[in-house]
Amino acid sequence: MTIGVPFDSVGRAGGTETAPSTLRDLGLPQALGARDEGDVAVRIRGEERDPHTGLVASADVLESTTLIRRAVAAAIEAGERPFLLGGCCAELPGALAGARDALGAPLGLAHLDGHLDLYDGVTSTTGEAADMPISVVLGLGPAAWVEAAGGPAAVPERTALVGFRDRAESIADGMRRPEDIPHPPLLYGAAELRAQGLAAAATELAERLGAGQFWLHLDVDVLDEAVFPATDYLQPDGLGWEELMALLGPLAAADGLVGASLACYNPDKDPGLEYGRRLVTALG
């Protein structure tokens, strides 16, 4: 089933927040062969940064996490495999928490994203929740957000960070180094993927994660800025469409996949919806 998560952690309406409705109009649920369950009633509004959590629109982020968590848990308990139509990456902690609640234990994660997303409420330069989802799912903070998610939802050594290209910038900002986390996550940066070979890396990932239950998250900024400009945080040296499909194929086919989420498509930056259509075709 598909579940819409129409929010954006910048705290304003429009842009990425409209992605779920646009993707429905472009036929993504049908392309996936999925029943559409409509949207979770979430919103993130405000540009003030909370002094305790470090989050912009903190109360809305925490409430939205609770609602997403309930929706995903209910779907999995009903025998469904949910696909979240985001929205931004702030959906991920609620999604993983719901899956953990339904399955009874933290699970693995394949996180395909141009960013490491390991900031927290102190190190994030923006305070946007989308900077922090990996920190939250691993239980590293912000503390109130981890609490709203019911504690850690992913196993660090079964969390694969795939396709990132922001290591130098984020470490310079003060973000924690992934290697410094106890039981560090699996690291597959874009350059390392190409050095290993996309097909070989995809097979290895599917074998390492698919042996147990895991979640698949796709942020469209894992694609190169020239390939997919309809997103807010553009970077060069990203994946091409064929490279992305080489990664997604084995992961989507793995027996352990329990759900997936899509994030950070911005229809406002896609006036003819060319890139939205390409995304629907690729995912279908």
Which labels suit this protein?
284 residues, alpha/beta, 8-stranded parallel sheet, 8 strands
Explain the overall architecture.
With 284 residues, the chain is α/β, with parallel strands linked by helices. The protein has 11 helices and 8 strands. The chain has an 8-stranded parallel β-sheet, sandwiched between helices. Helix 10 (241-253) links the parallel strand 7 and strand 8. Helix 3 runs parallel beside helix 4 and helix 8 (190-196) packs across helix 9. The two termini are 14 Å apart. 54% of the residues are buried.
The helix/strand class is: alpha/beta
| Mean residue pLDDT | 96
Radius of gyration: 17 Å
Low-pLDDT stretches are none
Quick one: biggest sheet?
Answer: 8 strands, parallel
Q: How would you describe the oligomerization state of the chains in this entry?
A: single chain
Please work out how many helical segments DSSP would assign. Answer: 11
